[in-house]
């Protein structure tokens, strides 16, 4: 369908179009005249998302969470917020309101809950797409009441957020206060156990004593090794008795052995010359026996000395070994005590850290419970509306005209299609598939010849009337 055909149809059906236009405009006029006016008041809040906590100095994770603004809008539309508005505006004290409540509920439930539900039916909190802004809109037949309720919801929300925050922090503060007493008692017990253990075992704060004892053990170990070597050497020397090189090579023994050798040579000479009864022979024999006795006595004395030295060296080695074992046991005991002391020290440190952490959090929650939240502010209070939000004649009447023309035109086209008629040259050529040679002007009765068109493209419709 061409634009020309559409205009021909609208022109032919103009009465129908005008009728639909009149009906639509009349409906809008009726809405304006008979519908009671409703006034919408809007209060605008700004929400600081990602605000800095004034106590900790960190970004508030709660305000940075996704969907935070939507959550705040739900809080505004919550029943508890509406209850706060009812109490702030003292709506339940109006006798007409009380009577309306009785008529609607027959006394079931509470008046505050019923009023809160009534308010929530006409309040809407909308989050702006761009920006951290929430618009609170309340609609009612009274402009002043709409303004009061919209501002009441804004103020109740700010108070609600503050109460929720301070209430949570107060609960946390009470929890940490109760925990501090237990943690402080645990810290005192751990410190007392550590002090008693250190006092009982003579443990000082530093490890100097342990270092001294370790050095003493090292020295004793070296001394024991030396004593062991000496004992082995002395035992080796004493093992051969008179045949020991130290005994044989002794200067006194060597001197006595020389004297014995000389006396033996002299005795042999006398024995060869003289008889056994010769005084010289007897004197030489006596001197030889005395020299041998002295030699034997000297060798026995030196051999006994070596045996005594070996015994003393073994005794010293045994004493050194025993002293080293005693020192080692003492050092092991000190290390065990030091380990137990360190365990107690770690318990004290852990108890101290727990107490310090709880004390710091208790201080933070105590401050936060008294801090006024600054992340919500009133960007615009709701003024009293100057005009109704519905119905609005300046919008409804033009809307009725536009809708009337659209619906009237659509209805005219539908009626035309249900009963198609020839209204132009184009309709004749398209619907009858016949060439048009001339047209008659109905006003002047003149015949206007149309330029001849190629009939090759046209196929006669023998089914059409003659």
UniProtKB/TrEMBL annotation:
Location within or outside the cell: Cell membrane
PANTHER family: FERRIC ENTEROBACTIN TRANSPORT PROTEIN FEPE, TYROSINE-PROTEIN KINASE
Taxonomy of the source species: Bacteria, Pseudomonadati, Pseudomonadota, Betaproteobacteria, Neisseriales
Naturally occurring in which organism (per UniProt): Silvimonas iriomotensis
Cross-referenced Pfam families: Wzz
Main location: membrane
Official protein name in the record: Polysaccharide chain length determinant N-terminal domain-containing protein
Ranges that cross the membrane: 16-35, 395-415
Coiled-coil ranges per UniProt: 173-361
């Amino acid at each position: 369908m061409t634009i020309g055909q559409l205009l021909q149809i609208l022109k032919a059906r103009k009465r129908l179009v005008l009728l639909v236009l009149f009906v639509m405009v009349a409906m809008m006029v009726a809405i304006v005249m008979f519908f009671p006016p409703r006034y919408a008041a809007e209060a605008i809040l700004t929400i600081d998302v990602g605000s800095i906590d004034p106590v900790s100095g960190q970004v508030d994770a709660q305000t940075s969470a996704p969907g935070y603004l939507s959550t705040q809008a739900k809080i505004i539309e919550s029943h508890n917020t509406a209850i706060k508005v009812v109490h702030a505006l003292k709506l339940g004290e109006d006798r007409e309101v009380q009577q309306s409540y009785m008529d609607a509920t027959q006394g079931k439930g509470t008046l505050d809950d019923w009023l809160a539900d009534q308010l929530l039916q006409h309040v809407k909190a909308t989050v702006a797409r761009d920006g951290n802004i929430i618009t609170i809109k309340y609609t009612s037949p009274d402009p002043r009441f709409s303004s009061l309720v919209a501002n009441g919801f804004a103020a109740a929300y700010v108070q609600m957020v503050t109460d929720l925050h301070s209430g949570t922090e107060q609960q946390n503060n009470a929890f940490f206060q109760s925990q501090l007493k237990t943690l402080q008692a645990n810290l005192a017990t751990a410190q007392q156990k550590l002090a008693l253990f250190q006092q009982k075992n003579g443990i000082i704060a530093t490890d100097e004593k342990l270092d001294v004892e370790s050095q003493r053990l090292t020295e004793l170990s070296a001394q024991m090794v030396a004593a062991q070597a000496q004992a082995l050497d002395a035992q080796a020397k004493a093992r051969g008795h008179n045949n020991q090189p130290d005994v044989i090579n002794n200067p006194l023994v060597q001197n006595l052995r020389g004297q014995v050798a000389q006396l033996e040579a002299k005795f042999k000479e006398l024995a060869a010359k003289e008889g056994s009864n010769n005084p010289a022979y007897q004197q030489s024999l006596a001197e030889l026996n005395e020299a041998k006795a002295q030699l034997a006595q000297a060798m026995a004395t030196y051999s006994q000395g070596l045996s005594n030295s070996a015994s003393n060296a073994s005794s010293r080695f045994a004493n050194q070994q025993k002293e080293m074992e005693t020192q080692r046991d003492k050092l092991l005991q000190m290390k065990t005590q030091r380990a137990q002391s360190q365990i107690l020290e770690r318990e004290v440190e852990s108890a101290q850290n727990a107490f310090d952490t709880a004390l710091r959090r208790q201080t933070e929650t105590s401050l936060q419970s008294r801090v006024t939240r600054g992340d919500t502010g009133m960007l615009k209070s709701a003024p009293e509306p100057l005009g109704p939000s519905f119905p609005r004649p300046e919008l409804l009447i033009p809307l009725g005209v536009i809708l009337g023309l659209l619906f009237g035109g659509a209805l005219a086209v539908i009626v035309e299609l249900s009963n198609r008629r020839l209204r132009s040259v184009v309709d004749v050529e398209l619907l009858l598939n016949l060439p048009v040679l001339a047209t008659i002007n109905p006003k002047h009765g003149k015949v206007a010849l149309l330029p001849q068109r190629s009939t090759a493209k046209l196929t006669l419709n023998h089914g059409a009337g003659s």
